[in-house]
Amino acid sequence: MKLQKIKNTWQLVKQSVAGDSEINYTEGSIGRVSMLLAIPMILEMAMESVFAVVDIFFVAGLGTAAVATVGLTEAMITLLYAVAIGLSMGTTAMVARRIGEKDNAGASLAAAQAIWLGVFVSIIVGLIGIFYAPNILMAMGADQQVLAIGVPYTRLMFGGSFTILFLFLINGIFRGAGDASLAMKALTLANCINIVLDPCLIYGYGPFPELGLTGAAVATNIGRGIGVLYGLYYICGGGGRIFLHTANMLPHLATLTSLIKISLGGIAQFLVATASWIFLVQIVSSFGSDAVAGYTIGVRIVMFTILPAWGLSNAAATLVGQNLGAGLPDRAEQSVWQIVKFNAVYMGFASLMMLLFATPLVGIFIEESVASGYAVQALWIFALG
C-alpha cells in the first residue's frame, strides 16, 4: 500500500514537472491539481532563490565591501521587484480568469498588454540607474570604499532591469495559463547559465576576463536575458494556450487599464514592504560595511527559504483565477485553504532549520568574522518572525 502511494506521488511529480497545458485545474481532486501546479512553482521559486544565493556566494570572495555593494543595490532594486511582482500577480490573475472562461484569445491579449507595461517600466528604471548609480548608492549610505567599486555594478544591474521585469511577467503569464513547468524551466535555464558565468566573469577563469564585482552583474543579466528569450520563444510560437502575434501586441487601452487596476493592490503591498526594507538597510549601513554584509547574507539565506513559499502562493492565485473564471467560487476557496496548509507546514520547518543551523548556514558564504556574527543574529531574528 505504501509502495503504491510512493509510486503515485512520483508519477504526480513527474507529470507536474513535465508540464501539460491541457490540464483542466477546475476539475478533479483539489489536492491533486494543487500539487500539479505547486510543484513546478515551488521549483521555479527555488531557482529564483538560488540566483540570490549564488551571486552572494561568489561575491563574498571579493570582501565585505563587495557584499555590501550587492546589498545596497539590491535594496533599491527591490522597488523594481515590487512593481514586477505586482504586475506579475495582476497578469497571472487576468490570464487565469480568461483561461477559466475558456477565452484563450482574451488571455493572450492580456499577456501582450503586460509585455507593453513591462517595456515602459523597464525603460524608466534602466535610465534612472544608468545615470544616477552613484547617487543611489550614496542615498543608501554607502561609504567611499563601496562607492569606489560599486558604481559599475549598480549601473549594470539597473540597466539590465528589463531582464528581471520580463522574467517575472513572462513567468506570470505561464502560471496564469497553467503552464507552470515552462516558468520553472525558464528560471532553471537562466540559473544554470548564471552559475557557470558567475565565477568565470568574477575571477577570470579560462578565456574570460576578470571583471570582479562587475562580472556578477554581467553574469546575472546574461542568465536572466536568456531565460527571457526562452519564455518569449514559447509564447510567440503558439504551442500553448498563450500566443502572442501582431494583432494582440497592439496597445489595447481597456485591457491595459484593467491590468493596471488589478496590479495596483499587489504593487502597493510590495512597495510598503520594500520601503521598510530600504529604511532598514539605511539604518544598518550607518554601522559600516561589515553590518551591511552580514545583513545581506542573512537576507539572501532567508530569501532562499521564503521564495518556495511564494511558489505555493502563486499556485493559489492560478487556481483561484481559473476557478472563478469557470464560475466555481467554492472550489476557489477550497483551493486556497489547501495551499495554506501546505505553506504552514513548509514555513514552520524552514524556520526551525534556520534557528538550529544559522551558524553553519552563514559559514557557507563567509568565514567567521564580525560580518558573520551579524548574519547569524539576523537569521535568528528572521526565523522567529
Would you mind describing this structure in some detail?
The protein has helices at 2-18, 30-59, 64-100, 104-139, 144-159, 161-177, 180-203, 213-237, 246-249, 253-285, 289-325, 329-356, 358-363, 370-384. With 385 residues, it is mainly alpha-helical. Helix 11 packs parallel to helix 14 (370-384). It has one domain.
Structure summarized in a few sentences:
The protein is mostly helical and 385 residues long. Helices cover 84% and strands 0% of the residues. The model has no long low-confidence stretch (mean pLDDT 84).
Helix content: over 70%
Distance between the termini: 40 Å
Computed over alpha carbons, the radius of gyration is 21 Å
Largest beta-sheet characterization: none
Total number of distinct structural domains: 1
Counted beta strands: 0
Order of helices and strands: HHHHHHHHHHHHHH
Decide which structural class fits the backbone.
mainly alpha
Mean pLDDT, all residues: 84
Number of helices: 14
Low-confidence stretches: none
List strands and helices in order, with pairings.
Blueprint: H1 2-18, H2 30-59, H3 64-100, H4 104-139, H5 144-159, H6 161-177, H7 180-203, H8 213-237, H9 246-249, H10 253-285, H11 289-325, H12 329-356, H13 358-363, H14 370-384
Protein traits:
385 residues, mainly alpha
